[in-house]
Amino acid sequence: MNYYEHTLIARQDTSPSQIKTIQEKYSKIIENNDGSILKFESWGLLHLSYLIKKNKKGNYLHFKFQGSGKTIKELEKNEKIDKNLIRYLTVKVKKLDLETDYFKKSEDK
Fold first, then answer.
1. For the chain, is the Cβ count within 10 Å smaller at the N or the C terminus?
2. Is 22 left (phi over 0), alpha (psi -120 to 50) or beta?
3. Rounded CA gap, 10 and 82, in Å?
4. What domains are there in the chain, each with its CATH number?
């Protein structure tokens, strides 16, 4: 089993309930294909560097999981036909950093 980081960008007009549905859908796909989610982060609505399919912003969802090539094939097959997503990216990593939250707002005052 390999370690992966998988990021999804949903359209900017996606409601919070739809985001939760997207998260559950892809979590089930990972788990049904011999994968296990080690960490999930919702980074929220962020500005895109350039327009993607007429969107200036996107809702970012980030999965850190352990799985196989079969898991990735199934994920990407479903993401290609999902109209709520504008981009996705899967990166294979040797070691996962499960402690650091890069997009968590710090409360230093």
1. C
2. alpha
3. 10
4. 2-93 (3.30.70.60)
